[in-house]
Predict the structure.
Amino acid sequence: MMHEYIWACSQCFTCWIRCPFVNNPGGLVAIMREVAVRNAFEATKDLLKPYGRVLLKVMTTGNQLSADMLQPDFFPDWGPKMADNMENLRAKRLAIPFDVGKSVKTAWEVSLETAIEMYTIWRETGIFEMLEKLDPNLYNVIMDIVEENEERYEELYEEEE
Ligand code: SF4
């Protein structure tokens, strides 16, 4: 169950709402997932491998997806029409009638301050450590970006002082 079933839960918490005794299987699943990740089970590593791009984006920018990730070979299960969506991507983004930061690399603009706050949360809650155990290569890539942004932030902060 730790290797398979816990990852099939969508964390909708319908079970919690419906249970006459207010039991919370979805909450238990969340705890079991954390145990699986913290202990870097082999099955968990395999399972999370396809989400490398998403993890990279989330952990460095706070965005789960960006327009430039909508590519057929990134997510083959999204079907053959995905390639059409990539045509004129920048023009399509600019045509969106509200501000999306005019970027294809993030879904919305993330300030350096927000990114630094996020990195602090990842650090303080042990998320970076978990990632290092699960996927050392991805961890190194992410830490390069994090450290570069932290240095940039420090330089800006020193200039202001
Ligand atoms: S176990 Fe609960 S939270 Fe998970 S998918 Fe089923 S109903 Fe939803």
About this structure: The chain has two domains: 1-39, 48-160. The mean pLDDT is 88. The CA atoms of residues 44 and 156 lie 39 Å apart. Residues 9-15, 25-26, 29 surround iron/sulfur cluster (CB under 6 Å).
